[in-house]
Amino acid sequence: MLSLFGDPHARGGFCDGLNRRDFLTAGGTLFGGCLALPHLLAAGAKSGTKTSHKSIINIYLPGGPPHQDMWDLKPDAPKEVRGEFNPIQTKVTGIQICELFPRIAQMMDKFTIIRSLVGSAGDHDAYQCMTGRPRTPANLGHWPSFGSWVSKSQGPADPAVPANVSLMYPCGEKRWGYHGDGGFLGIQHAPFHLVGGRDTGMKSDSLTLKGVSLDRLNDRMSLLKGFDDLDRKIDAKGTMDGMDSFNRQALDILTSSKLKDAVDLSKENPKVLERYGVDDPAFERDGAPRMVRNFCVARRLVEAGARVVTMNFTRWDWHGPDGKNFVQARKDFPLLDRAVTTLIEDLHDRGMDQDVSVIVWGEFGRTPKINNMASRDHWPQLSCALLAGGGMKMGQVIGSSNRLAERAASRPVTHQEIFATLYKNLGLDPNAVREYDANGRPHFPIDADAQPIRELV
């Protein structure tokens, strides 16, 4: 785990032994490389370009949520397929969803459901939801995440707030905590990681501020104190003297009040915060905790200037002997229903709904047939996604599945098409963005034949 204050037994330099040169060099890894921002800031200033602040909130449900129990119920299917839940009518005529999502049903005009997402790699892995591609030995560590492409192409909207921010908790199943990396674009474009793992000896790449680890976002007062201690330490050492303007601007990410304020929920209207519900910081086995107020933190981060925020929420792998599908669904569906609708209401209330796109999805779907443990097994052939905001056309369902929800019956949609849509929402033309890897080979963010989803744009 990295520490801003270095080795407490080291001598010389600043930050308790880390000298100035090492401190700046550490920007290659610290905070996902945000201290390497001077080069990016300098380039942006030289070009004189400025982009509008569009943003994405990517909500990943680790473990594979059951599509036919959430957004694509089959009430006329055989009992061993249809499950225990009933469909309810939504605000949009003809669209029905699970009864445990009454708030989304009431706001269906502000959502779109994709019922025909195909092409899942079939692994318990966030990789495809972060990059649009399956994990392969060639891709791993090579292919940049969606947020990294955005960081490289558009830069920060505000110099004090990283463009690419992660609220992804490191999980016992490590691939559920994967938030992407900079790949061949460079570590300076990797996500700025704000949360760490639970205190079980699990290693985390999150920061430590004077011994205060960011293990849980609900310990926000300790986080803020750590930032304040860093401010005073840097000022006392005179570190700012002699730095060029871009190094100074990069260091602002650590010391500006913008990032501190974004994670400080004591600055949020208590009535708004109450609408999200109450956090449960306990990790769900090898998954993520039920931190419903991170939905609010995500909103505050994009409001502050982040372009891409990724987060994971609880654990959706329910087919083991102690994870019955319908028991867990009764616990987690209402939490997701409340948190995501409050987020969308928040964005609309603040006039941000045209600028902020929200996507909710997992790595694959679930088997049509319920197994002998009252659960559903892995089913990469079909899954679903929920989208909102970003100026997209809402109040519709895209695609359909066959009568058993086992395959796409119409309008199959791919991960590449979803990312093409999100890039378009950001005002970024991925066909015009070409970057080169270490071997000089050119790459584009998405495949040449991937187009934005026509029903949304």
TrEMBL record:
Residues annotated as signal peptide: none
PROSITE patterns noted in UniProt: TAT (PS51318)
Domain of life of the source: Bacteria
Pfam families linked: DUF1501
InterPro entries the record matches: Alkaline_phosphatase_core_sf (IPR017850), DUF1501 (IPR010869), TAT_signal (IPR006311)
Listed name of the protein: DUF1501 domain-containing protein
